Amino acid sequence: MSNNLFSLSGKVAAISGCTRGIGRSMAIALAEAGADVCLLQRNIGDKKLYNLITEMGRHCEIVYLDIGIQTTIQAAIDGVIAKFSRIDILVNNAGIQRRNPAVDFLEDDWDTVIQCNLKSVWTLSQTAGRFMVSQKSGKIINIASLLSFQGGINVPAYAAAKGGLALLTKALSNEWSKFNVNVNAIAPGYIATDMNIALTENEAVSEDIRNRIPAGRWGTPDDFKGPIVFLASDASNYVDGEILVVDGGWMGR
């Protein structure tokens, strides 16, 4: 099999939530596969990842995006196209978490989580999708969750958003596949990142989770390099509306 099947040379990839964790590893993987990368980030002064990607010889730009402020979202995609004249790959990774029992869950927290984890993805995808449909090619990759399938505990808004995101992925795929625009999602399992620090810092909880993962370990951000390149490349041209679970076997068990 030719390695060109997984090459992203000549492609422009935009990714949100990329300054740390899974997003950072995915951005690096896209660049390693040959893509030029636009970093959609709130702190535009943070240039550590920008410097790393440019040192790899890739064209990299930073565009401001705050997923909590709706007016910045469409402007972000317009900014990508202004800088690169195209967008071939969109990775919707940015998201937040709020934990509280359902009976005590604050309305403001609910609204914030739904805005950041679902509505922002819809707006980014719709705006990029208009361009991709017109050029008759593109890849949109959403970052879902095990809570796209399970309800979780003390995270009702997050579960609702990630469940909705899974079906949004399928809905967009149903409409756009005929235009050669593939819309898919990756559902991470238990990954050792800042978002899960409340779990990883609780030794008993962390060990209990690890013991239930068939692979015998928490995942790492680098475990997402292969899946993101696969879904962004020609290797997945007939993959549509799928939720690719990357969880060390958790869901299988």
Which tags fit this structure?
253 residues, 7-stranded parallel β-sheet, Rossmann fold, 42% helix, alpha/beta, 8 helices
Descriptive report:
This protein is of the alpha/beta class and 253 residues long. It has a single domain, classed as NAD(P)-binding Rossmann-like Domain (Rossmann fold), CATH 3.40.50. 42% of the residues lie in helices and 15% in strands. The protein has 8 helices and 7 strands. It has a 7-stranded parallel sheet with strand order 3-2-1-4-5-6-7, sandwiched between helices. Helix 4 links the parallel strand 4 and strand 5. The longest helix is centred in the middle third of the chain and has 29 residues. The two termini are 32 Å apart.
What is the overall pLDDT average? 95
The CATH fourth-level homologous superfamily:
NAD(P)-binding Rossmann-like Domain
This entry's quaternary arrangement is: single chain
Please report the distance between the alpha carbons of the first and last residues.
32 Å
How many distinct folded domains? 1
Protein name: 2-deoxy-D-gluconate 3-dehydrogenase
Keywords: NADP, Oxidoreductase
Family: Belongs to the short-chain dehydrogenases/reductases (SDR) family.
Pfam families: adh_short_C2
